[in-house]
């Protein structure tokens, strides 16, 4: 499964931390894993109820809203196939909703102004209803805000996205997921209903040391919002997918776009945000991507740092974790304390493009200073030295045209401009004219120069 594991001393610390969390959180059981590089480097399991399936890395738990990340990937696959665009209104694909003018993107990012829950009884604890029944009972009450105004989490929105997948693929959304995503990734233990070794869900009394079994409901049309079951092992593979190891299911660049912040979910603090179906968390100077999940009897969490491929999965079988239990990121902190992520070993590339190499070195935008270098992937990297030079990266389109793929110049085109003797005179990106010296040569500066620099 993985090329390496943590040191024995690190494993002891992690086991202690997991046990402490289980005890303080009063969790009937907890299974967890840490991912780094190609797979799991540590797994742990604590607790268990007599007569129930003991916890373990390959034991299924219900993962709740982590389901939404799988649905989001199916939607992005439809986009890659040219079947939809993210700006399509919902009514184009799923008719007869009270929010047909809201876009696919807004549903993915929870910015459509939809109600958090569907109409009717508490859907997570009630037998699921069909889409036809939902159409009979929903109303204008399911629109609670104007489109695009702010983040407002909506389980209802993801149920609609599941129907969108079903309509465009002419097959149930989970069948599409199994064939197009789970099977290629080898995730055989992620299922719509519990299969094989699976734990039960429990309610822990808040003021007494007793538990009560929770009833598991099949959620029907709402299933895309939180139905799935999975394991630590399978979710470790999903963490690697989110970090960019996509196995052809989606281009890594598309998954990277899904990780980009689309909305801030906690206001001025900006410790949590929303991407295209993924939740974002900023912690200890690191931006994590993944999702949390809860259903009656279960809590789940998956977070991964795409920059290092280090992530954590924690699954537990209780409706509510008691106060005092550390978050799943505490396991990541222990790993970082004991075995910090090592820097990548540098090695040279065989060769670089001669034209690109000629563009490296110092450049000026007016009096602002920047430096261009070439990274290992052959991209131009513009780094600010001083002044207002925007930092960015550029990938070659063709010849003397490069497209920005980071920061201020994202999707802008950088053009290498040349004189009649094919010598580079300047770089022009979105009307920013970069020259080899401050405001020189003057004939390429927009508006010209009032006069040159005073010289003797």
TrEMBL record:
<feature type="domain" description="Beta-lactamase-related">
    <location>
        <begin position="25"/>
        <end position="321"/>
    </location>
</feature>
<dbReference type="Pfam" id="PF00144">
    <property type="entry name" value="Beta-lactamase"/>
</dbReference>
<dbReference type="InterPro" id="IPR001466">
    <property type="entry name" value="Beta-lactam-related"/>
</dbReference>
<protein>
    <submittedName>
        <fullName>CubicO group peptidase (Beta-lactamase class C family)</fullName>
    </submittedName>
</protein>
<feature type="domain" description="DUF7586">
    <location>
        <begin position="352"/>
        <end position="436"/>
    </location>
</feature>
<dbReference type="InterPro" id="IPR012338">
    <property type="entry name" value="Beta-lactam/transpept-like"/>
</dbReference>
<dbReference type="Pfam" id="PF24491">
    <property type="entry name" value="DUF7586"/>
</dbReference>
<dbReference type="InterPro" id="IPR056008">
    <property type="entry name" value="DUF7586"/>
</dbReference>
<dbReference type="InterPro" id="IPR050491">
    <property type="entry name" value="AmpC-like"/>
</dbReference>
